[in-house]
Design goal:
Elements: H1 3-34, H2 41-71, H3 73-102, H4 112-134, E1 150-153, E2 156-159, H5 160-182, H6 184-194, H7 197-201, H8 206-227, H9 238-253, H10 258-278, E3 280-283, E4 286-289, H11 297-308, H12 336-350, H13 360-383, H14 394-409, H15 415-437, H16 442-462, H17 464-467, E5 473-474, H18 485-507, H19 510-520, H20 522-527, H21 532-558, E6 560-561, H22 568-581, H23 588-604, H24 610-624, H25 629-641
Antiparallel strand pairs: 1-2, 3-4, 5-6
Length: 649
């Protein structure tokens, strides 16, 4: 590779950094003021592209004709084009304000994870709304008038529009800095970021400020998307593809730091561009394809930064978490009525194959529900009692699935042995990851688990000779005795039942109490002589092992495995299951897993817009059951059983 190619790729990285910074700056602003981790931020980026396409295609000609009287044809076309891009950002900001007023304003007092669930539900609604309005086809917008050519840089042709984008990032940074440092609005934003109580002292209505900040953040995301219109087509995958990069930039730069987001966007964009420039290099006779690192480069950077500086490059250390007051309901069979209820549920599940002979799909769905229940229970084990929020739990589910498949296909072991060994492999993979993860907390812990999960996904996705690469592995079937669906259903139900019971027994053991003590107050736990990092590490590894068992059963039920089971989507599904059921009740993940999986399955087979219906259902459940389905039902039951105090009527 020559120096010219290297420099051109570096310049190209600067152009990509501008759009990435716009999205990350909006996300950082929203989090700094509202404390909401807005999972729907990528959806507003996607809307910015689609709205810009419509405005440029249908409104720009009329605006250009009106401006042509004053500016002339060429100048009017350019002015109309960029005016439409700005209008797209304003429309996106207005939609953001509407979302904040109608939805988010109602859940500011809810736990952070339920806010995350609500914003993810919003992603599903927006995605299907976009599908209904613009269709499923990719939409390629026109080039920017006046900036559609290229210039020579070191003998290489470089798009003029990319040079324009390079200037946008620093310009927006300067405007934001002036706004935050020199205006009353900026003073209020800084006050809300540093001390919420200061707003009351200033006589400010926080609702109006939150709406304005959320609208500004969404407008920045929409502007970032609109500016991408000449570079890439509008398509429905932009939301999820963008939100991952935006989260990485915000976390690497430091949550709530706008300059940090700018530095992180430059760093990540340049590293990805330079990986492309380096290409394939022979080192000691071994070929290394650096271009493949672009799939995971940002997560490698995030993992490295968080391990060295847990609060990001320009962020500030988080304050110690406050002691918690929520109490988990202990798992026990209880009285005769509770025991009878559990026996009835068990008998109904065991007898399902006897009543589904005419409906083979019922058993398939039953296996999926059981596997989802164990996966959700393993995630709840570290989220609820341990207080560790993992955004990458699917990595251990996927490792278990791949381990079972490889043991059967490559090592020739039986499926029974694979079901025993696969959880151990998942636990071994999780052990070094957990060592780093348990030294962080809050959002930073969650994002580090996401980074490591994406690294594991990248290995499975690109290791063609061993894991099958993007095609995955096929022919992963259990032993002959379990080939019958009914037999495998009973095996799955037995293993899931034992797994869930084992997790609940651990939570009643000294380890379980130590995990809850570490969650409630790290300082008090350490004062009692607990090694908090060791306790959390052990809980993390144990949860990964049970997730690996769920993954192994999933692989044998489907007969194949692909990298999708390790992806962000699968981890988000697990989070939804736990939150939907309720984090602070031990039966919650089981209820959430069954509810979410059954809803997803039934809706996807009944309507093309199943995501919108599922997202709307989730939003309704969040508003009606703010503690999750099981948690809210449990609270209602306790309220009905508790006699009123004297004097109450």
């Amino acid at each position: 590779m020559d120096v010219a190619s290297f420099l051109v790729q570096a310049i190209n990285g600067l152009a990509s950094a501008s759009s990435l910074f716009l999205v990350a700056a909006g996300l950082s602003l929203i989090f700094g003021v509202t404390r909401i981790v807005n999972f729907a931020h990528g959806s507003f980026f996607m809307l910015g592209v689609y709205v810009a396409y419509s405005l440029v295609s249908f409104a720009a000609p009329a605006v250009s004709a009106a401006l042509g009287v004053v500016l002339g044809d060429a100048a009017s076309q350019t002015a109309a084009y960029f005016l439409m891009l700005l209008c797209a950002a304003l429309v996106t900001g207005a939609l953001g304000a509407l979302v904040e007023v109608l939805l988010l304003r109602r859940i500011y007092q809810a736990p952070e994870l339920f806010q995350l669930l609500a914003t993810f539900a919003l992603v599903l609604v927006i995605q299907d709304g976009t599908l209904w309005l613009w269709g499923a086809e990719d939409l390629l917008g026109p080039r920017a008038p006046g900036l559609s050519g290229a210039v020579d840089i070191l003998g290489r042709r470089f798009p003029t529009y990319d040079l324009f984008l390079m200037a946008i990032g620093p310009l927006v940074l300067a405007v934001l800095w002036w706004c935050l440092q020199r205006t009353r609005f900026g003073m209020l934003v800084r006050a809300a970021t540093q001390d919420r109580d200061m707003l009351d002292a200033l006589g400010v209505n926080p609702r109006h400020l939150f709406t304005a900040v959320f609208a500004l953040g969404c407008a920045l995301a929409g502007l970032g998307g609109a500016l991408q219109l000449p570079r890439e087509p509008a398509h429905l995958g932009l939301d999820m593809a963008t939100i991952g990069d935006a989260f990485v930039v915000v976390v690497v730069g430091g949550m709530g730091s706008i300059p940090g987001a700018f530095v992180a966007a430059l760093l990540i964009a340049e590293i990805k561009a330079l990986c492309i420039a380096v290409g394939t290099v022979d080192i000691l006779g071994v070929s290394f394809a650096f271009s493949k690192l672009t799939l995971v480069a940002e997560f490698l950077v995030m993992a490295a930064v968080l391990m060295v500086r847990p609060w990001g490059l320009l962020g500030k250390p988080q304050s110690a978490p406050r002691a918690r007051s929520e109490q988990d309901t202990p798992f026990a069979l209880g009285g005769l009525r509770t025991q009878a209820a559990w026996l009835l549920v068990g008998a109904a599940l065991l007898s399902l194959p006897l009543f589904s002979a005419d409906s083979p799909y019922t058993l398939v769905l039953g296996i999926d529900l059981a596997v989802a229940a164990l996966f959700a229970a393993s995630l709840h084990f570290i989220m609820g009692p341990a207080g560790m929020h993992s955004f990458g739990h699917a990595a251990y589910f996927g490792v278990g699935a791949y381990a079972a498949a490889l043991l059967v296909l490559r090592a020739g072991v039986s499926s029974e042995a694979a079901l025993v060994l696969a959880p151990l492999v998942s636990a071994l993979v999780a052990a070094p990851i957990a060592w780093f993860a348990v030294r962080l907390s809050g959002v930073y812990l969650a994002m580090l688990t996401l980074a490591f999960a994406q690294i594991v996904w990248s290995i499975c996705f690109q290791w063609d000779d061993f894991t099958g690469g993007s095609n995955g592995l096929t022919g992963v079937w259990p032993s002959a005795v379990w080939q019958d669906k009914a037999a495998y259903y009973w095996l799955t139900l037995t293993l899931v039942g034992l797994g869930v019971y084992a997790l609940r027994r651990v939570l009643m053991s000294p380890l379980g109490y130590a995990l809850r003590a570490s969650r409630d107050s790290v300082g008090r736990a350490e004062a009692m002589g607990l090694n908090v990092a060791h306790v959390q590490w052990l809980g993390f590894v144990l949860a990964a092992g049970f997730a690996g068992l769920a993954g192994a059963m999933f692989a044998f039920s489907k007969g194949s495995i692909s990298p999708d089971v390790l992806g962000v989507g699968k981890s988000v599904d697990g989070l939804i299951m736990v939150l939907l059921g309720g984090v602070h009740t031990l039966v919650g993940p089981l209820v959430g897993a069954v509810t979410f999986t059954a809803l997803q399955d039934s809706l996807s087979r009944s309507t093309d817009y199943w995501r919108a219906v599922l997202g709307g259902s989730m939003l309704l459940l969040v508003l009606v059951f703010p503690q999750g389905i099981a948690g809210s039902m449990q609270a209602l039951w306790l309220r009905l059983r508790t006699p009123p105090a004297r004097g109450d009527a």
